[in-house]
Each structure stands twice: as C-alpha cells, then as structure tokens.
Amino acid sequence: MAKEKGSFKEFLSAVAPEYQSFVEKLNNKLIEQGCDLVIKEAKSGYAASYQLEKKTVMNWVFRKSGVLARIYGNNAGKYEDIIASLPAEMQKKMTISRDCKRLIDPTACSDTCVKGFVYTLNGDTHKKCRNDGMFFLLTNETAEHIARLVCAEVTVRKSAS
C-alpha cells in the first residue's frame, strides 16, 4: 500500500526537467478548479492524484518510460470533440486499450469496479477500462492534449455536482 509522503516540490523534482513547468502549470490550474492534490510514494516513484469531491480525476504515475497521465474520463462522452482533436497516436492508444468488462457484462468484473467510460470516435462507440482507457506518456506532443482532457473532465464533473 502506498504511504502518504512528500510534497509537490519533491514530486516535481522527480519529473523530467523538460516537463516540470508543464506539470506545475497543470497542477496550478487543477488546484484553481477545486481539485485536491494527494501525493503518495509508490514503488516506481511518486504517485500524484488530483481529486474532486474525493473522486480521482487524474494521476501522474512514474514508469521506466517516463511519467504518465492516467485520466479517469468518467464523462468522456461529454467532450468527444476534444477526443476527436487528439493526435492519431493518442486516439489509437485510447481505442486499442482494453475494453471495460463490466460495461459489456455487468457481472464480469469485481463489485468494487467503478466501471469504465464510453465515447464515440469516428463513428465507433468505445467502452474502455478506466485504468488504461486514457493513459498517456507525457511528451511534448501529448502535454497540451492531456491538459485539455483532464480540464474537460473536471469541468463536466463540476457542472454535474
């Protein structure tokens, strides 16, 4: 189990220098939008979670390949325009990620499974697992798209509450 640990500054220092200013700007934007930041120490470094009303909107996680954004796109169907504007590589990553078993068969996953999300892209409906349906490596190409996706999710959640 990950233990509570570290400050944003420590977390940020673990991010590759070329992405620190982006991560910091996005952090400020999410905090301004009412998200709480929870930083834990994980096996692979820090895990930083942004939560809105105790529900996680996104995590930064560290892997050998770099830092990845896991966005919990519960409301992806409400910002399909943003998904449609993603670079082909990010769209492909979303469409080839695993399907949500529970959206296909309600008895298929554990009872604690929160279910994935549904969106339409290029006329096809996708039912994706929330854990890897929007899981992107932070690069110069993906940074602004990650920010747009997570901010869209926060906006929809706030308007629903």
Helix content percent band? 25-40%
N→C terminal distance: 30 Å
The mean pLDDT is: 92
Number of DSSP E strands: 8
* Helix and strand composition category: alpha+beta
Tell me the major beta sheet. 6 strands, antiparallel
Oligomer: single chain
Strand content: 25-35%
Order of neighbouring strands in the sheet with most strands = 1-2-3-4-5-8
Low-pLDDT runs of 5+ residues are: none
Please, how many helices?
6
- CA gyration radius, whole angstroms: 15 Å
What is the element string, with H for helices and E for strands? Answer: EHHEEEEHHHEEEH
Overall 3D shape: globular
Detailed description of the structure:
- By secondary structure, the chain is of the alpha+beta class.
- The chain has helices spanning about 10-15, 15-30, 80-85, 90-95, 100-105, 145-160, and strands at about 5, 35-40, 45-50, 55-65, 65-70, 115-120, 125-130, 135.
- A six-stranded antiparallel beta sheet has the order 1-2-3-4-5-8.
- Strand 2 and strand 3 form a beta hairpin.
- The radius of gyration is 15 Å and the shape is globular.
- The chain starts with a strand and ends with a helix.
- The mean pLDDT is about 90.
Key attributes of the depicted protein:
37% helix; 161 residues; 6-stranded antiparallel β-sheet; alpha+beta; two-stranded antiparallel sheet; 6 helices
